[in-house]
Amino acid sequence: MTAEDQRSCMVSSETLPHSRSNDRTLVIMAKAPRPGMVKTRLARSLPVEAVTDLYRCLLGDTMALAHSLSSGKVAIMCPASDVEELTQFAGDTTGVVAQQGEGLAAGLTSVFAQFALGGHCVIAFNSDSPHLPVSVLERAFEMLTVHDVVVGPTHDGGYYLVGAKAPPATLFDGDGMGTNSALDGLLARARRLQLSVGFAEPFYDIDVEGDLTQLAEDLRLAPARAPRTAAWLKEWQQRAPQLRNAAGGL
Hints:
This protein has a single domain (5-9, 16-208), classed as Spore Coat Polysaccharide Biosynthesis Protein SpsA, Chain A. Helix content is 37%, strand content 14%. It contains eight helices and seven strands. The protein has a seven-stranded mixed beta sheet, sandwiched between helices. A hairpin with a 5-residue loop joins strand 5 (149-153) and strand 6 (159-164). Helix 2 runs antiparallel to helix 8 (227-239). The longest helix has 20 residues, at 48-67. The protein is globular. The relative contact order is 0.16.
């Protein structure tokens, strides 16, 4: 992220107008929790069945986080093949919508084509940062009142959320999702499209064992932030002590 990008996010929360509750939608980017299809990089460190169980907890806690927002709608965007299973998983609390095309970039494009109409503020959020403070999501929506796009950077060069209030044409074209240059690519395209960008607080998602170690430590101190995931991690640590590191994490 360039110095120019960093300066563009220096907007005091006191200066941000409030977005209207009926003009906000948070869309969770998700997959059905099937073995071998979710969090595949974690399978290098954990059995596939354990990774699948963990993802169910991450997604469940993410849905609870989304519904803890003070206002607005919540939806799930997923591959068409996953709609039925995720509808059963979500129950009546969250609508599930099939994306157009394959891959996460196509999914993000589908989010904004579907929901960001008529100035509606939409944020697409990952399904593996369930411990994010809800205040970060609230502020991200407020930032959309003064910016075209809002982005939540991850520490590994990606991003955990992206929002807009109009369908951002070509913003995700050629997106290198899952790489350490995903954020830089997104910002470069935003500049070419002359879109103003605001930044949510940097955070981390769960891709590799080191992320899981950090999550276990954070939830050991504050399990209420993601109770399903915290309970899974506690049980797994008891069943797999060989995965503990010197610091007491996984």
